[in-house]
Specification:
There is one protein chain. The chain is α+β, with helices and mostly antiparallel strands. The chain is built from 27 helices and eleven strands. The strands form four sheets. Strands 2-3-5-4 form a four-stranded mixed beta sheet. A three-stranded mixed beta sheet has the order 6-8-7, with helices on one face. α3 crosses α4 and α23 crosses α26. The protein is globular and about 75 Å long. The two termini are 20 Å apart.
Length: 686
């Protein structure tokens, strides 16, 4: 997703207790955002030296990151405004839940949010809601009991052992296939376990302290808690060593391993996979599946067989507690926040209503979506946004037709893929059915587990079934977008199609720079980046490239890798251009294609005069740079370098523009200026 890491960083922050079920007054409406706000600009900056500073420097100079956040900027500003609309829906549902019909979606929505806001009940319960989970884990005394225990926690939403999912078959994208993938680590990335040095040692020691603290809060004696926490780190370190790096995972071939049930049994002797599949709710025998990382599962089988059951009990116990620590009493909440803040730099807890809203949106998002759309997203806004996206598609087609390095054979396949690329704009055409979701008065932690079980049961038996092409992988109020290579489609929720991203009343220069270049052009190019190009028009993993064209693509892509690896990110650490390669290619393709789309729109609809002193082309690039207006804490950037496939927003603005001759032309930049890269360094892909 375009801005996944920014939103994920906000989501890990947890909230302070609030009074039970008090319907607090909504805050005053925040000032409207603009696609271009000249007050954000630094008019003393030289656009040809640092365009991010030119477009955003005035705002950066005045901004203070709120204590509860890891960053501030576009995504937070838009999310704050979206959350006001969502909050009004939730406050109303909570207040009127007892008037709604029993079993109805409004009743469930109001009850879910109300149990989250009921801090009195949460404080009184402490860890009691999950004591049955912990008692079940205590009964794990043999190796054969480990896999069923993993399955039971996975259904409840815990990240434990590995991941199971039902995804599109890489070689038959029209049908689902069972998929097993590495997972189950408590730290943000496998490198935190394997890195050397004092900083890495400090992080691991802090993790052990955190695990022990959660054990103690759940009732384990301190001496045992400390020993068990050390066992958790030891086991997870072995799992991490067997895990692929994030860079390795970016190669679709690295995780494409069609495997029969017999082959899975031979790979992992001693593990009862038919029993596991029955435990998680699969009805039909699993004859074939994809095993993303075979070496990981081979090692996991050995660990289950050789690691003593007390170590596995400690591991399972920690992940059971951790999965709901944010929804237990205040000591759990504060400990969870204290540890997560090492990676985000946040200074305070989020308000409880924001935390509850985020969880409700994540678990019952489509129950909220329809009301949100009615409040915020007009049919005219949807129509105008689709016009911009259609122009992006047409502009990319023209670029394909005129590429000089691509053979006619590969070009024909690329044009076919583009023509068949789907798009979803605004909201689903049909809303999710929540009739099987169980929501009860009482423990919110258990309601979260029930919501996770609902989603698990909704999808667990999909292998072999036709792929649901109507399904959305993102909720409607979310400030984000994505391209799905297995469906060959772009998805733009209504929450992203508001100012600052898009305004149906704004000029074309602004809208095409932000929605066109930074969003739609970016997502479309993902279909042709270093990962997306391996999927065909149907979403199947298939090599449709002539060998010489692949060689040229890879050569030019290496220029992007070198460019973004050369940028200083934080302290003395540089970016990992290999990790961010796909996003960097999409950013460059987006800004180039968006500009062409703007020129197409101006030729069709007419060219305005200067607006706020700038030409349409200049406003295009200002809007593009302001779409990356972000101020990020150093602690977040340190985590970002290890875990995030996106470059920091500062470089997402300046990096692509320094490769674009139209940008240099618009602002009169000359060779040798920092915003003009030498011709031999400029990549020529899309």
């Amino acid at each position: 997703m375009r801005r996944f890491a920014l939103l994920a960083a906000a989501a890990v922050l947890v909230a302070a207790p609030a009074r039970a079920q008090v319907r607090s007054p909504l805050p005053e409406v925040t000032a409207p955002l603009k696609v271009i706000d000249t007050a954000y600009m630094n008019h003393h900056a030289n656009a040809c030296r640092d365009f991010f500073d030119f477009a955003n420097g005035g705002w950066i100079a005045r901004d203070t990151i709120p204590a509860a956040y890891s960053s501030s900027g576009v995504a937070r500003d838009m999310s704050d405004r979206n959350q006001l609309a969502v909050r009004s829906v939730l406050e109303d549902a909570m207040a009127h839940r007892h008037q709604a019909a029993p079993g109805s979606t409004p009743r469930k929505l109001g009850t879910f949010y109300a149990t989250c806001m009921d801090s009195t009940a949460i404080e009184a319960a402490g860890a009691r809601p999950i004591q049955p989970w912990l008692s079940a884990i205590d009964s794990v005394t043999t190796a054969r009991q480990v896999l069923p225990a993993i399955a039971a926690l996975q259904i409840k939403g815990a990240n434990v052992g590995f991941f199971y999912s039902a995804d599109g078959d890489p070689h038959d994208a029209a049908h689902y296939l069972a998929d097993l993938g590495q997972g189950g680590l408590g730290l943000p990335d496998r490198d935190y376990y394997t890195d050397s040095g004092s900083a890495a040692d400090s992080t691991r020691q802090a993790y052990v302290t955190h695990v022990a603290k959660l054990f103690t809060l759940a009732g384990t004696p301190a001496a045992q808690a400390n020993g068990d926490a050390a066992l958790v780190l030891s086991l997870e370190t072995e799992m991490a060593r067997a895990s692929l790096t994030r860079v390795a995972l970016r190669d679709p071939a690295a995780t494409d391993h069609s495997t029969t049930a017999e082959q899975l049994a031979a790979l992992t002797p001693g593990l009862d996979w038919p029993g596991y599949f029955r435990t998680i709710g699969i009805v039909a025998p699993v004859a074939r599946l994809n095993v993303g990382e075979p070496d990981y599962f081979k090692r996991l089988a050995r660990l289950i067989d050789s690691v003593p059951p007390p170590t596995w009990r400690a591991y399972l116990r920690y992940h059971a507690i951790s999965s709901v620590a944010s929804w237990l009493s205040t000591p759990f909440v504060r400990e969870n926040f204290a540890f997560s803040s090492r990676f985000t730099g946040a200074k305070e807890l989020l308000p409880r209503w924001k935390r509850c809203l985020q969880e409700t949106d994540g678990d019952l998002g489509e129950a909220l979506g329809q009301a949100y759309v009615e409040k915020t997203f007009s049919p005219e806004a949807r129509r105008r946004a689709k016009t911009v996206i259609d122009d992006i598609r047409a502009a990319f087609r023209e670029r394909l037709l005129h590429l000089t390095w691509m053979s006619d054979s590969t070009r024909a396949q690329a044009l076919k893929k583009l023509a068949m690329m789907g798009e979803k704009v605004g909201y689903p055409e049909q809303w999710r059915d929540y009739s099987k979701l169980d929501v009860q008065d009482g423990s919110f932690a258990l309601n979260v587990a029930r919501a996770n079980a609902f989603e698990w049961n909704r999808t667990v038996n999909r292998p072999g079934q036709p792929v649901d092409t109507t399904e959305w992988g993102i909720t409607v109020p979310t400030v984000n977008a994505y391209y799905d290579p297995s469906k060959n489609e772009m998805v733009f929720p209504a929450g992203a199609l508001t100012p600052q991203t898009f305004d149906p009343n704004a000029d074309d220069g602004a809208n095409y720079g932000s929605l066109g270049g930074s969003w739609a052009g970016h997502e479309l190019t993902h279909g042709f980046d270093d990962e997306g190009r391996h999927y065909d028009e149907h979403g199947n993993l298939r090599d449709w490239w002539q060998p010489a064209d692949s060689v040229t693509f890879s050569r030019e892509a290496e220029k992007i890798v070198a460019q973004f690896s050369g940028y200083l990110q934080v302290d003395t650490a540089h970016g990992n251009g290999r990790l961010t390669e796909g996003e960097d290619i999409a950013d460059l393709g987006g800004v180039l294609t968006g500009y062409d789309a703007l020129e197409r729109a101006l030729a069709r609809d007419g060219r305005p005069g200067l607006i706020e002193g700038f030409t349409p082309e200049q406003r295009y690039f200002i809007a593009y740079a302001q779409s990356w207006r972000t101020h990020t804490r150093d602690a977040t950037l340190r985590t970002w370098i290890k875990t995030n496939p996106h470059a920091p927003d500062y470089w997402r603005a300046n990096g692509p523009l320094a490769n674009d001759p139209e940008f240099a032309k618009a602002f009169g930049c000359q060779p040798g200026d920092p915003m003009v890269r030498a011709p031999e360094l400029v990549p020529h892909i899309w």
